[in-house]
Write a structure and sequence with these properties.
The complex is a heterodimer of chains A (306) and B (362). By secondary structure, chain A is mainly α. In chain A, 71% of the residues lie in helices and 2% in strands. Chain A has one domain: ABC transporter involved in vitamin B12 uptake, BtuC (Orthogonal Bundle). A two-stranded antiparallel sheet of chain A has the order 1-2. Chain A is globular and about 60 Å long. Chain B is an all-alpha fold. Chain B is built from 16 helices and no strands. Chain B is globular. The two termini of chain B are 14 Å apart. The chains are: A mainly alpha (306), B mainly alpha (362). Chains A and B meet through helix 4, helix 10, helix 12 and helix 13 of A and helix 6, helix 7, helix 12 and helix 15 of B.
Chain lengths: 306, 362
């Protein structure tokens, strides 16, 4: 009996890793892109929630969930561009502005999203990859959303793009050594604003996944800090997109621990198990970070690690 | 007359970015409401009325401003030493919880005053240690304190919810899980002549004490040196880590005290009503005050006023309760964006000063 429970728990964790990890994947890819250009955007949390609201509202109004994803991305693009532009002004601290953007994004989403809490919008469809199996749990676990596959493709594309394209090189140069980039004539501000805006787009798509697939509704308690944990996740992934994928899956599994245990009948300590991703984040940072030494792979212009 | 005017201008100039930010935020807020066809000017008027329009509104505002002053200190004091700590909500929750369980651990017959002192001490210790942990993680492990403190806040909130709904729950609290209610003698009453609890007094006192510490003490000066330039601080032999720890400890203690005061003056026991977001609004208050403890008193009144006007907006204009959150967000964005302007401003100020002294000599 106990053995069966462990198998069920593991299956629930694997399913959760994919299901809960997908928004982590998008937000961390967005943050990775932003940080590669030398900026930190803590406002991704606000962008994520704003994206969840916009995605849900667009899906409801147009009747198409995929248009909802696009709409969410556009809202993220706008907020990301705002962060990029304002932080290009002199004397503006990107971490502080991220906090402000977080507050603003939450306010905007809660204000504009009030009418959308009740109605039911069209959801993103799941791909049933487990139909060959007889086990309902396994079928359920292999019910995978298209966005997850897009996310994997995106991580691979970013990995290749950063390493071996002219654009990727320019982006990394801007993030690693602004002086050199300026001397070579790259448009520093433009590249940073574009990277931050694109990062906002991805974070908002992650938000749309939350409201349009899992948990699949819009309400004010939708996000549980995924946007902030993404910053820690990117540090853990050492600024490499493919490692972001692995990290997102680990965090997804940690996030699924509470619900998985609850579905197996373990109800005591529900809140403590739900805090597992935060504890994991902190533990990982304690293990990987060192004072007086920049991490390998950290962009040189990053205010976060200096 | 000319030099006098110039001197006045040069003194008033530093306030200019804040005023611009205030104007900019209000303008954007009005536009935001107008675009949606809402009565924007009416809304602005109601915010003012709801915040400062009547004795009742003032009492409400002061009531909210009290914890904001303390949670803002949780941001401002570490900021003096160069840290951006945003986990005040966690320190407030743990401080409140520690204060609420203190009477359970001690003999029931204890008189009110010593018990309140012990409760405050427990709250301050819990909050202080929690924020100091974030500072410790940064100094010894190199973990960015902004992210670290926020993660710690999430963990603190989980611990709070777990204990309040589990091991520490009063079986009598059916609908709303709470710790056992404090007996009446351990509650904090209102101040004489005004229907506002004593938390306001302690909040203002803490801000004044922080001002004295920051501006008129050796420790405050060394804190500013660490915050201004860590290398210089190390070079002159300041114990950088210890200074950072103490700054975080004091800031966290302020937030913990806010939790204790809310428990003892408003809620009467620890429950989730304590988690009203004071820790997060305190960040805005501290940044608006530019981490100046005396300015925090004013800014806390201002932000507390905006927050307390939310219900009036909801009742009269049927606006969502997030309206005040939008205004706060716009305010925060504007405050930081207009900071860019202050570089040019100091150049102007310098020119004004040379002009003034030039006139005086001539």
């Amino acid at each position: 009996m106990a053995e069966f429970d462990i198998a069920a728990l593991l299956l629930a964790l694997v399913a959760g890793a994919i299901r809960v990890g997908t928004p982590f994947l998008f937000v961390s890819l967005g943050e990775c892109l932003t940080e590669k250009a030398g900026r930190v955007n803590l406002g991704l949390e606000g962008i994520l929630v704003c994206g969840a609201m916009t995605g849900y509202a667009t899906s409801l109004l147009t009747g198409s969930a995929w248009l909802g994803v696009l709409g969410a991305g556009m809202s993220g693009l706008a907020l990301g561009a705002l962060h990029g532009l304002v932080c290009s002004l002199p004397r503006v601290n990107d971490i502080a502005f991220g906090i402000a953007l977080m507050l603003f994004g939450l306010g905007l989403a809660f204000f504009l999203g009030k009418p959308f809490i009740q109605p039911q919008a069209p959801m993103l469809p799941g791909l049933a990859l487990g139909n060959w199996s007889d086990s309902p749990q396994l079928r359920n676990a292999l019910q995978i959303n298209g966005l997850f596959l897009i996310g994997i493709a995106l991580a691979a594309a970013m990995h290749w793009g950063l390493a071996s394209t002219r654009w990727g090189l320019a982006l990394r140069l801007v993030g690693d050594h602004a002086e050199t980039a300026r001397a070579l004539g790259y448009p520093l501000t433009l590249i940073r604003v574009m990277a931050t805006a694109a990062g906002g787009f991805l974070a908002a798509v992650g938000g749309a996944y939350l409201s349009l697939y899992y948990p699949g509704s819009w309400n004010e308690g939708l996000s549980s800090g995924q946007g902030l944990m993404a910053v820690a996740l990117v540090i853990f992934a050492r600024w490499q997109p493919m490692r972001c994928l692995v990290a997102a899956l680990i965090f997804g599994a940690a996030g699924a621990l509470g619900p998985a245990l609850q579905s197996l009948g373990v109800s005591s300590g529900y809140y403590l198990f739900n805090a597992a991703p935060y504890v994991l984040t902190l533990a990982i940072m304690i293990v990987t970070c060192r004072p007086n030494r920049t991490l390998t792979g950290a962009p040189g212009e990053l205010s976060l690690t200096r | 007359m000319q030099p006098g005017f110039n001197r006045l201008l040069s003194k008033a100039l530093p306030a200019l970015p804040t005023l611009c930010a205030l104007g900019g935020a209000l303008l954007m807020f009005v536009l935001f409401l107008l675009v949606q066809g809402q009565p924007a000017l009416e809304a602005c008027k109601l915010i003012f009325v709801g915040a400062f329009g009547s004795a009742f509104a003032w009492e409400n505002t002061l009531q909210r401003a009290a914890p904001l002053m303390l949670t803002a200190l949780c941001v401002a004091l570490p900021a003096r030493a160069g840290l951006i700590v945003i986990g005040g909500e966690g320190a407030l929750a743990l401080g409140g919880l520690a204060a609420a369980v203190t009477p359970l651990m001690l003999p029931a017959a204890m008189p009110g005053m010593p018990m309140l002192v012990l409760m405050a001490a427990a709250g301050m210790l819990a909050g202080g240690v929690w924020i100091m942990f974030a500072g410790w993680l940064r100094q010894t492990r190199g973990i960015n304190e902004t992210i670290g403190s926020l993660l710690l806040a999430y963990i603190a909130l989980a611990i709070f919810r777990h204990l309040v709904e589990g091991p520490l729950r009063d079986p009598a609290s059916l609908n709303k899980p709470s710790t056992p209610a404090l007996s009446d003698q351990y509650l904090i009453g209102t101040m004489p002549g005004i229907d506002v609890h004593w938390g306001l007094f302690w909040g203002v006192l803490a801000c004044v004490a922080a001002h004295v510490l920051v501006r008129h003490s050796v420790f405050g000066f060394s804190m500013s040196v660490v915050g201004g330039n860590v290398r210089a601080a190390r070079l002159v032999g300041l114990p950088v880590s210890r200074i950072v720890f103490v700054a975080c400890l004091l800031g966290g203690a302020a937030a913990g005290l806010a939790g204790m005061l809310e428990i003892a003056a408003v809620h009467g026991s620890a429950n989730t009503a304590l988690l009203a977001g004071y820790g997060y609004s305190g960040i805005l208050v501290a940044f608006a005050a530019r981490h100046n403890p005396l300015a925090i008193v004013v800014c806390a009144l201002f932000i507390g006023g905006i927050e307390s006007s939310g219900s009036l907006l909801q009742r009269r204009l049927d606006l969502p309760d997030a309206t005040t959150l939008v205004l706060q967000g716009l305010l925060f964005i504007n405050l930081l964006a207009w900071e860019a302007f202050s570089g040019r401003l100091s150049a102007w100020r310098l020119r004004l000063d040379t002009l003034r002294t030039g006139v005086a000599h001539g």
